[in-house]
Amino acid sequence: MLVIRAAGPGQTVVIGLAADSGCGKSTFMRRVTGVFGGVPKPPSGGNPDSNTLISDMTTVICLDDYHSLDRNGRKVEKVTALHPRAQNFDLMYEQVKALKNGQSVQKPIYNHVTGALDPPEEITPPKILIVEGLHPFFDDRVNDLIDFRIYLDISDATKFAWKIQRDMEERGHSLESIKASIESRKPDFDAYIDPQKAKADVIIQVLPTDLVPDEKEGKILRVRLIQKEGRELFSPSYLFDEGSTISWVPCGRKLTCSFPGIKLFYGPDTYYGEDVSVLEMDGQFEKLEELIYVESHLSNTSTKFYGEITQQMLKNSNFPGSKNGTGLFQVITGLKVREVYEQLTQREVARV
User: Fold this and answer.
1) Which of 87, 209, 228, 272 has the fewest CB atoms within 10 Å of its CB?
2) ∠ at Cα 178 (176, 179), nearest 5°?
3) Is it the case that residue 267 has pLDDT exceeding 90?
4) Torsion angle, CA of 132/153/230/235, rounded to 10 degrees?
5) DSSP 8-state assignment for residue 99
6) Average pLDDT in the 328-346 region?
7) Confidence of residue 101 (pLDDT cuts 50, 70, 90)
8) What is its subcellular localisation (predicted)?
């Protein structure tokens, strides 16, 4: 028997997104909120450096706002922003709990421009609260408040390639400084951030491609959507036949593919001792509108109408990752967020 843990009257549904810095959380948030309609914007008339984004149904808060140490304080204490000692988990728990129960809070603001802790801003309880950052699942009290957990797992090789593109090519940083920055954060990342993925319901794993040997620029990607089985509030998407193991090259008369092509995979697996279903895409689309052909072979994607995934992808075609599996699986995960919301509230979200 399926038991739905319904949200109480006026209670907010809480979604958690964990990832390292520079791993695409902002793009993902825009895709997820796009599923619910409206454009996420900073609080009107508030701090221009606020990290909060508000749309019709969702409010996204950045957990960096719960840093207990500002940038200078971390230097003095010789800790990174990834270390638990630099976080105020007590306040994080109190405020997420209050928002979940329909109460407004005065949330602090961590200013990413100045590195200072700015005066707080008022956050009113939304229908859906998305908490994103480094530590959403680290503290058990906070983790227990979250209804659906997502982890963005970017491989070291891909993260390094992205950071070179952003910091070296766009910001003029040296290769040595980039390497030093990555190495200085890695011990804390491995100790405190990475283990959280074991608690996630859905993991989007981004890896170097298998289609091009020694591809090191991070432009062609192999992306895996790892979905926990046996969850109360959602069931995994699959390709062709649920529970089978399938490899599929869709390139041909119905899907245009330039080098190196596209390969999809689906099958059962285990992840940290739990049964999972895995969807995988390697390569990228040449013509995004042809995604409808691939979408037609995916099942249990939580769409409301034929072609909704393709519509969402085309609507945000300028977002990073729109032509590869990161965009595709972010949209599917966004649809799963909608499914979780509807299950918990027993309220249907209108088509957008």
Assistant:
1) 272
2) 65
3) yes
4) 80
5) H
6) 94
7) very high
8) Plastid, Chloroplast
Helix axes 308-315, 25-35, angle to 10 degrees: 130
Residue-by-residue DSSP string for 175-190: HHHHHHHHHHHHHHII
Q: Which two tokens stand for residue 110?
A: 């961590």
Of how many residues is the chain composed? 352
What single DSSP character describes residue 2?
-
Calpha distance 149→156 (Å, rounded): 22
Residue type present at position 226:
I
How would you label 227-265 residue by residue, b for 16+ Cβ within 10 Å and e otherwise?
bbeeeebbbbbbbeeeeeeeeeebeeeebebeebbbbbb
Distances (CA, A) of 351 to 37, 277, 303, 311: 8, 27, 10, 12
| Rounded CA separation 118/70 (Å) | 10
Cis ω for the linkage preceding 260 (within 30 of 0): yes
d(CA 135, CA 132): 8
Q: Which residues of 191-312 form beta strands (DSSP E)?
A: 202-208, 221-228, 238-239, 246-248, 262-271, 274-283, 298-299
Q: Are residues 238 and 300 in contact, defined by beta-carbon separation less than 8 angstroms?
A: yes
Considering only residues 88 and 38, tell me which one the structure prediction assigns the higher pLDDT.
Answer: 88
The mean pLDDT of the chain is 90
Give the DSSP H/E element, type plus range, for residue 142: helix 140-143
Q: Give the SS3 label for residue 275.
A: strand
The structure tokens listed for 271 are: 């992840």
CA 219 to chain centroid, in Å, comes to 19
The answer to whether 28 and 17 have CB atoms below 8 angstroms apart is yes
Structure tokens at 9: 């009257």
Task: Check if the beta carbon of residue 262 is closer than 8 Å to that of residue 285.
Answer: yes
pLDDT confidence of residue 351: 61
pLDDT tier for residue 1 given thresholds of 50, 70 and 90: very low
With vertex at residue 41, the alpha carbon angle to CA 120 and CA 287, rounded to the nearest 5 degrees, is 145
Peptide bond into 320 cis (omega under 30): no
When pLDDT is averaged across residues 294-311 and rounded to a whole number, the result is 96
Amino acid (one-letter) located at 230: G
Q: What is the pLDDT of residue 5?
A: 43
Cβ-proximal residues to 312 (8 Å cutoff; 6+ apart), any chain:
31, 34, 35, 331, 334
